[in-house]
Specification:
Layout: E1 10-19, E2 22-27, H1 34-46, E3 53-57, E4 60-66, E5 69-73, E6 81-84, E7 88-91, E8 98-105, E9 121-124, E10 127-133, H2 141-149
Parallel strand pairs: 2-8, 8-10
Antiparallel strand pairs: 1-2, 1-3, 1-4, 4-5, 5-8, 6-7, 9-10
Amino acid sequence: MTATARIPDRTIHASAVKVGDTAVLIRGPSGSGKSRLAFDLMLAGRAGQLPPAVLVGDDRVHLARRDDRLMVRPPPALAGLIEIRGLGIRRCDHVADAVVGLVVDLDAADAGRLPVPESLVIELFGFMLPRIPVAAGFHALPLVAGFMTTTDARNDAAMPPDCRKEFGNHIEPTIATKSTRSGSPHCGKNRGEF
């Protein structure tokens, strides 16, 4: 193992939920809704709206670089505990650790309706990770679900050829969705032009 392969853990004020194979790291100031989003993700996983979701940690988590992965785990004293506002501290299923695959920043100053691409990535421990900035008072679950269940229309190359969702393919064509491109009449003007 090289000297850069393992960096000591850093404890941060955040929550994390493993959704499918990777963890969603939820950051934000106190009272911004980290625990609420963590619980919402767990409920969405149980309801089948997202892949199965289980708590990694709530309120405080440890981050560490392990070889080619950024890992998150709960502090031992908080493992399996989550705050549910109105019920208090509750015990639930949890995992010992998970690979971070997405960062959600609550009450983010750079959140926007159509965010600039630079705000949708963040560097943590030397890893470039996808990021969702969420404005204060905005419900974050639909954004996370959207990230996990859709593809970025600005990047044709990111979509596998057998899964071209095309812009608006679930609705009747309108002036906004008609295209003169070959292929689906439902794909927007020119991908990447909004």
